[in-house]
């Protein structure tokens, strides 16, 4: 493990998802302890996006926090991590601010519904509603509807991948790019990393399994829930996929990248040595600074005019 990260491992909380309410409280406390980011170079606005018509379980309006750097033309539908159990626009504020600042694009941080109270497809319906809304309102916001990316971390990365499948299948809004950071893609947990990483920091096999149980709610997984199950990956937008060495999701992410390539989709795959799932939160580490800067740089290139 990277020595700068290893020094923080004893300080990382040993949370699990057996008690979602307790997990959310812990996660919110961690997020609140982070210094507020500098938003002086952008406009920040809280919005309520209507549920998308025709969704399988239309819910309430979707909370969205919009970060619009001065001169932004591209847009990123950003989906937070948290195992489908934790997270909201408040806890995601530092991440979303950084993505907006370093990409130069407007970021729509989505406060999708969480499981187990609202299992699949609620979160995907919410994310799709925001994608549809962003495309329809791009002109009013001064953005280019031809420059929309979907992106996310962990469970949010899996949602971003599912968005590209759904948009393709339903002839929805055009997605220019997908950025999947340590995405959660396959409920079967059959890869080497899923079977062997039983005591890795922050996220391990059992925590991933609990996340899938809550998200699926006892129903069989479909490709829209677990994109790793999708048989047809043709016609999807170009992708950037990042993995962490000591992350249970690592091997399914690498496999997904290879399958995208074999389906004719352009892919950049970056495996970060010495890192673990979520270690980018240790922003003082050199490897974290490089990881975080790369996310913004990748989106900046992908959404350039």
Explain how this protein is built.
By secondary structure, this protein is α/β, with parallel strands linked by helices. The chain has nine helices and eight strands. The chain has an eight-stranded mixed beta sheet with strand order 1-2-4-3-5-6-7-8, with helices on both faces. Helix 5 (155-169) links the parallel strand 5 (148-153) and strand 6 (177-181). Helix 3 (93-103) packs across helix 9 and helix 4 crosses helix 5. The longest helix has 17 residues, at 286-302. The radius of gyration is 18 Å and the shape is globular. It starts with a helix and ends with a helix. The model has no long low-confidence stretch (mean pLDDT 95).
């Amino acid at each position: 493990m990277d020595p700068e990260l290893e020094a923080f491992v004893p300080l990382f909380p040993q949370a699990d998802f057996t008690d979602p309410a307790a997990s959310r409280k812990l996660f919110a406390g961690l997020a609140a302890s982070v210094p507020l980011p500098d938003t002086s170079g952008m406009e920040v606005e809280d919005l309520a996006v209507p549920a998308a018509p025709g969704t399988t379980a239309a819910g309430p309006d979707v909370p969205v926090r919009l970060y619009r750097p001065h001169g932004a033309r591209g847009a990123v539908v950003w989906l937070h991590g948290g195992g489908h159990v934790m997270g909201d626009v408040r806890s995601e504020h530092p991440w979303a601010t950084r993505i907006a600042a370093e990409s130069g694009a407007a970021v729509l941080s989505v406060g999708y519904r969480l499981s187990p109270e609202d299992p699949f497809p609620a979160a995907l319906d919410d994310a799709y509603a925001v994608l549809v809304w962003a495309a329809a309102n791009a002109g009013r916001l001064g953005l280019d509807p031809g420059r929309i990316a979907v992106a996310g971390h962990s469970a949010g990365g899996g949602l971003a991948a599912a968005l590209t499948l759904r948009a393709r299948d339903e002839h929805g809004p055009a997605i220019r790019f997908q950025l999947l950071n340590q995405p959660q893609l396959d409920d079967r947990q059959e890869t080497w990393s899923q079977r062997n990483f039983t005591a890795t920091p922050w996220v391990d096999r059992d925590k991933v399994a609990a996340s899938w149980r809550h998200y699926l709610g006892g129903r069989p997984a479909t490709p829209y829930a677990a994109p790793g199950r999708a048989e047809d990956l043709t016609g999807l937008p170009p992708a950037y996929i990042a993995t962490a060495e000591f992350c249970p999701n690592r091997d399914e992410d690498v496999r997904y990248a290879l399958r995208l390539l074999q389906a004719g989709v352009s892919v950049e795959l970056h495996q970060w040595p010495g890192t673990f799932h979520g270690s980018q939160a240790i922003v003082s580490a050199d490897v974290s600074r490089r990881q975080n800067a790369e996310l913004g740089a990748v989106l900046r290139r992908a959404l350039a005019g």
